[in-house]
Amino acid sequence: MRFKPSKLTLFISLVLLGFIFLLTPQNITSRLNFAFIGIFRFFLNVGSSAVYYQQSENSKVSPFFVPRHEYDKLWVAYTNLQSQIGEQKKQIEELGKVRMTEPDPATGLVLAKIVNRRKQEFIINKGTADGLANGQYVLGDNAVIGCITQAQADISSVRLITSSACKLAVKISAPDADVYFNGTMAGDDKNGAKIPNVPKKYDIKEGYYVYAAAAPGFLQSPRILGRVLKCTVDQSNPVLWEIDIAPAYNFDNLTDVAVIVLKTGIN
Amino acid sequence: MKWLRFILLLLFVAVLQSGTVMNIFALTARHIKPNIFLLLLVYFAINCDSFDAIITSFAVGFAADLAGAVMGPHIISYGLVGVAVAYVRNIILLKKTNQQAAAIFAAGIFVELIAVLLTGLKASGLAKMDGMEIFAVAAYSAILWFMLKLPITAAGKWTGAGIFHFGARQMGR
Question: What is this structure's pTM?
Answer without folding.
Answer: 0.74
